[in-house]
Amino acid sequence: MDLRITRTSGLVGTIEVPGDKSISHRAVMLGALANGRTRVTNFLRSADCLATAGCFRQLGVAVEDRGSEVIIEGKGLHGLKEPSDVLDAGNSGTTMRLMAGILAGQDFYSCLTGDASLRSRPMSRVTLPLTRMGATILGRANGSLAPLAIRGGGLKSIEYHLPVASAQVKSAVLLAGLFADAPSKVWEPKPSRDHTERMLGYFGAKISRRDNEITVYPEPTLTARDVYVPGDISSAAFFIVGALITPESDLTIRNVGVNPTRTGILDVLTAMGACIEVSNAGTLNGEPTADLRVRSSRLDGTEIGGSVIPRLIDEVPVLAVAAAFAGGRTVIRDAAELKVKESDRLSTTAGELRRFGAAVTETPDGLIIEGGAPLKGASCFSHGDHRIAMALAIVGLASPGETVIRDAGAVSVSFPEFADVLNSVRLQY
Ligand code: S3P
What we know:
By secondary structure, the chain is α/β, with parallel strands linked by helices. Helix content is 31%, strand content 26%. The chain has two domains: 3-19 and 230-428, UDP-n-acetylglucosamine1-carboxyvinyl-transferase, Chain, CATH 3.65.10; 21-215, Enolpyruvate transferase domain (UDP-n-acetylglucosamine1-carboxyvinyl-transferase, Chain), CATH 3.65.10.
């Protein structure tokens, strides 16, 4: 599917973006491991989260989609059953890595696979600690690539220093820790998103944090709870940048998750000169939420690196777009993790932005963008990566001429309604 975009003079109105992807995955996972019925409202019905729901159905859990809510009939910590076929995580790294943690704790055999992109992404970051805990895991390339065959059960606790700041790896170890023989500890080099920790606490697990050290206690009784999923700031990010770089925008995005481990994008854009007002602060099941009002702004280049990187890891492609429209140079560093996302996002962001005329150089761990080069609509490629497809659509909103994004069907991985929401607020040029 191609997505065609023409220039707009602004994004005006009030929208909501779909539910948070990370929180939707975790709600299904913990709902399945809890005792009782969990209702998830505003669940993200995207390919990634539906893959997680499908895996749990194969593990014997009833996951019912009632339209306005998803109902999970929890089986308790030890109620999953051996699946009769391979579990398919599709394009979703979160599904594969977090499921690996849960399956490592199960006294049965299971096999996890995914699409070509996911089968090329590094899995030793989860198979190593899980194997150390006592699970038997086989995979291609010495256990580092899916499909992964897992024979779990009988786990020992672990004290693990994460080699990379990764919420998926942290979560895999914490979830396996629920099934271990003693408390497990994980240290993260820089704080990454903490939705697993928050939701484990919300469902009744004993989990604590001191600085960058997280301790999880085994064999909790998880109790089903209602979960209301806030809007995904990673989806909102495309609209935030779209509103900033088009001249007549005044856009409000309601009910966005503003967990501080996710708001690096707001900090960086504000430092670049963005006019973003945060109001109506609230909390939903332990997750902070707010409304964001964004108006057209003149942006300046900036330096992005260090501990903010995990807090905006999925927003780097769209931040590069903002930088291309800013005055001056933007340098993004410490972001080598982007090379192992759904595509190599350093290379795909740089290569695709250059098609529009942007001055972007790829470095070993980031990007250098000379802002302000005159851009022109272009024919470009998603590389099968949802966030690249949407970032390119945002470039098209502010570039003269037509932009065509090839293979834009990838947006359904995280934001199936992207084009409709965009059309509902875009002004005619
Ligand atoms: C996610 C963690 C991040 C992020 C991904 C979702 C999660 O991945 O990029 O989109 O839900 O835990 P890493 O843990 O690999 O950084």
